[in-house]
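dumping this here before i forget
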Amino acid sequence: MRLAILERLQRHGPATATQLAPYVGATPSVTSWHLRHLAGFGLVRDAEPGPDRRQRWWEAVARGFRFEAPRVPDDEEGRSAARALSREMFLRSGDLPSRWAAEVEPELDSVWQRLAGLADTRVVVSADELAAIEDAIECVLAPYVTRDEAACPADGRGVRLLRYVLPEGAEEQTGGTS
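structure:
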């Protein structure tokens, strides 16, 4: 539910718990409870009040986030929670490409169709090199993620950039790239 709340706020901007409730499948009071928890982790915050100052408006702090598993090797509870969150994130975004291909791509003009797509690149890297790749990608994206809405180009449109970083299992280690 919290991922659904974050996604809705990131894609559609500030909203109240009452406005979010139908999209996340909960009552406004349950949605409000989850919003307060997300705020406790710094993922959402109070937005500028709307026309009715009696309503509490919420906004996402960022337009996305990067999830990393805990670094404490003997924290079984943390590892278990990280695996659960990772699975949920994969499940939530797993069907996004096929939905996009069926519903959105046919309606795009040819320029946007050419720019869309998938890259599936296999590389052999160390953990430090993979961390450097991820950091470099974040640096490339940062100016676009952090700019004000007013600075966005008039012909711009929202684009979802999904990155799956999937280290292979031991049985898949054959070396080389493809």
